[in-house]
Amino acid sequence: MTIDAYAYPPCGTNKKIKFYCPDMVADIEKIERMLQGEQRVACLDFVRKMLEKHPDHSVPLFYNAILNLQLSDEHKAEEAVNLFLEKHPDNPAAHALKATLEASLGKGDEAIDELQTALEKTEERLHPSLYDAFGAVGQMLLMTGKVLGARSHFTLQSNLAPDDDNMPMQMLMRLNNSPEIPIFLKQDLSLAECPADFPRKEEFNKALQDAAQGLWRKGLHQFEELRAGAPRNPAILENIAALQFSLGQDDVAAKTLHTYAVAEQRSDFEAATEAEALAKALSDQDEEQIDVVNASMPIHEMEPLLEKLRVDERCEHLPIDLSQLGTEESPPPRAAYLLLDKPRAASGVDLTLENVSSVLGELLVFGKETDRPARTEFTSAKGPLFDEAISTLKEICGDAVDPTVSEDVQGRIFALQDLMNWQWRLPDDTPNEVRNRLMTEKRQEVILEKWVNFPLLTLSGKTPLEASKDTELRLPLAAEVLTLEMVGQQEKWKFDFCQLREKLSLPGAGTLPAENLDVLNLPITRLHRLPVSELSDEDLIQGYGRSVIRGLNKAVEILANELLVRESLKDQIDRSQLYGELARTATDSDEALSFLKKAQEEAAQQGRSPGLWMVAELSMRFERREMQEAQVLMQTLMSKYAQEPQTAQALFGVLQRFGLITPDGRMAGMPAGPPPPPSGPEAGGGLWTPGAPAGPPPQAAPPQGAPPAAGGEEKKSGLWLPGMD
Predict the structure, then answer these.
(1) For residue 700, pLDDT beyond 60
(2) What are the DSSP calls for 684-723, one per residue?
(3) Does residue 718 carry a pLDDT above 90?
(4) Helix ranges (DSSP H) in 250-313
(5) Exposed, middle or buried, 274 (CB in 10 Å: 0-12/13-18/19+)?
(6) Nearest to 424 by CA among 351, 358, 342
(7) Are 321 and 396 in contact (CB under 8 A)?
(8) What span, in angstroms and rounded, lies between the C-alpha atoms of 539 and 559?
(9) In the chain, how many H helices and how many E strands?
(10) Which of 160, 323, 616, 665 ranks highest by number of CB atoms within 10 Å?
(11) Of residues 638, 591, 590, the one with CA closest to residue 614
(12) Cα separation of 254 and 84, whole Å?
């Protein structure tokens, strides 16, 4: 390649090559050619020779640092980067490379500080190494669970991204669509404008300008100086918290956000509640935990015991491969059961909540070993039903076991998680509509009767009902309810939170007023409350787009249904995609299948192939174990749509996921018919669907004490939909 003498050298200086290093043009050209040819080892040897001639020059020092970082030798990379930084402490590229190095070593605070220093030392143009550093620091923050900081770094990187690099946007999409990340952490951080009556407007706006350019540390210092003169100004507090989050200072940011919420609650209780809920999600406040224990009892007589377990209908035999449960220290058990609180009903057709069988835990039966007697092992959380479970087990086993119980703690879970989760064993003929009704009734009972009477540390140890009578706890109580509501939205609960708010004497959260509504900047926690029938077409589309991007199931359902009936948008929207999103958000698999059929019909009517939507239906047929229908779909797909690249790729992915394609790409064959009914814990419930559009979603730890995933539902596989691969 030919180097322009009036271009800037690659090392990060603001002097042009002609005036800074004219004698190195040929060397730079050679290095760049070797880098393009991926000859990094040879290139590093050449750079080292340059360093012998010019030991203090930034050009060979820069290349030396870059190459050592790329060659993944941690010690040499650290030496090379530190040498570059030592010789040129004011060079932004040196600090950016140091940031990348520190991020790779997991040194979060150091990496962020170096990146901010690099930005502050940048005078005119942003060096490419800063762009790369934003991605490296963003990845590091994500791996350490600091999702908001990662969002800020990926957002800034995406704003700077060249046309051929969509990785930052892909990372943001994965964050937005991940069902593992709480909704509160999917909200973009925003900076409040200067209040009209604030006397130091010029300083406020200067801090705002710096912060908007990514100079978060500098902006934070400026806002902290302003805070000294106005300690409870909501706009200043909000901006400080946003910048602290961007800098990965989650703990201190949560405290600042709490201060903001307390200051703001009288003028804007809803904004204060959202801030308090986010602060709660990221605080160190631990909720009560309970042990998960393995309770064992010695066996006196094995065969009589096995007979008692076989005939008692409260013991549900698990037809699993017991050999998989053995370890190097212990042989596999002789039998495995689910322990139920009552015998399973003969039929689920007229099932009621009162006669549903609940799973108390798992029971394993072990034979005699060299150093251990024969024993039963019962595993369960040590919650309110634990003593009942042990009593039931002793009653069933009778004198075949020694009633002395030895407990071994296997782990710990949140007590609230135990409260909100339940497992049922329903009759195999239980209709879907009965499952859904029971799930709705159970959730009503758990939230409106049990959760409201559960003590929470965030409420000073009081229950929500007790806190509702304490004006000092009104804000944290509202935040707890909002947290629960957002979990419910992600898990597609059918529950009206207006009932809960009314019971706790909290302000309602109904449909938003249409007047002065800014759909683009509305907090995402309110999108499901949009007055859809009063929205303009543009606002409706924007609200729907924001909801889909962040996987807001309830909002997507409401807005998609409105889009489908808008005559003015009939020819402007892809109705098949709307039906596809409704299938993803459906809580009932029959309803989801109906939407997928409509998506296929709409695609065909619009002159497009329905192949992708047929693959989505195939995925669901496999989930429902409807092999006859799946075979018909397979035949249609193979005969009519297998030549379409996207359909073929999607079909291959679904078949591979269900084990119908071998690792070498050959068909493994389809089962002749549906397998036996499931025998594990189950309950009626929603259809869980992953939201990540490309690859697995990033992981993030759930907020401390936050309610878990939808209670009572067995773990469900994902429904593939077009756009997920």
Answers:
(1) no
(2) ---------SSSSPPP-PPPTT---SPTTPPP-PPPP-TT
(3) no
(4) 250-264, 269-282, 302-311
(5) buried
(6) 358
(7) no
(8) 10
(9) 29, 7
(10) 616
(11) 638
(12) 37
* Whole-angstrom distance, CA of residue 689 vs CA of residue 691: 6
The span from the first CA to the last CA of the chain, in angstroms, equals 38
Give 650: exposed, middle or buried? Use CB within 10 Å, 0-12, 13-18, 19+: buried
Q: Is the pLDDT of residue 704 over 60?
A: no
Q: Residue by residue, what is the 3-state secondary structure of 56-111?
A: CCHHHHHHHHHHHHHCCCHHHHHHHHHHHHHHCCCCHHHHHHHHHHHHHCCCHHHH
Tens digits of residue pLDDT in 515-525 = 999 999 999 99
CA–CA–CA angle 161, 182, 562 (5° rounding): 85
Q: Residue holding tokens 């043009």?
A: 25
For the entire predicted model, the pTM comes to 0.84
Cα–Cα nearest to 313, from 346, 269, 264: 346
Helix or strand holding residue 425 (H, E)? strand 424-425
- Give pLDDT, residue 664: 64
Answer positive or negative: Cα dihedral of 533, 535, 537, 539: negative
In this prediction, residue 1 carries a pLDDT of 60
Residue type, 681: P
**Residue 5 DSSP code:** T
pLDDT confidence bin for 85, thresholds 50/70/90: very high
**pLDDT-derived band of residue 323, with 50, 70 and 90 as boundaries?**
confident
Average per-residue pLDDT in the chain?
Answer: 88
Decide: helix, strand or coil at residue 195.
coil
Alpha-carbon gap, residue 356 to 343, rounded angstroms: 9
Tell me how far apart the alpha carbons of residues 399 and 198 are, in angstroms, rounded to a whole number.
79
